Protein: VOC family protein
Amino acid sequence: MDSTKGRAVGQIRRFDHVGITVADLDPVTDFFVALGLEVEGRAFVEGEFLDTVCGIPDSRTEIVMLTSPDGGTRLELSRFVQPDSVPGSPDAMANELGLRTIAFEVDDLHAAVEWAAGEGYGLVGGVGEYEGAWRMAYVRGPEGIIVSLAERID
Structure:
C-alpha cells in the first residue's frame, strides 16, 4: 500500500504563479495589463537551468511576470525564442483537457465584457449567475486564452 496516499508529500508555502506559453508576448501582456495586472518584470531565460527544468535542450524563452493589484498570485507569460513554439488548440472549449481558464474577480462584469468586446475578444458563451452570489462570463482572449471574469453580487 502507498504510505503517502491521503497525506501531503511536501509542504506548499504559497501559490506563486500560473504560467502560460504564448506565441506573441506583447498583445497578450497588453490584454492582461488592460484588465488591471501590473508588469513586475520582463527577461530572457536560457542555459542549464531552463534546459533542465523544461526538458528542452538549448532552449531560450522570454518571460513577462505580471502581478495582481492585491499582490497575490502572479501570471507568467512566456514565449519560446528557441525552439519554435508548437501550436496548441486556440479554439479549445472548456471541456478539452488541459489548462483552459484563468479567473479574475472584477468590480463591474458588464464593463469588463464590453471592454473585451471592443478589443475584439468575445464571449465563449454568455453571462451566467450562480446562486445569486456571482455573475460570471468566459471571454476568449488573445491566443485563445479563456479568461473567466466574475463579479460578486451584493
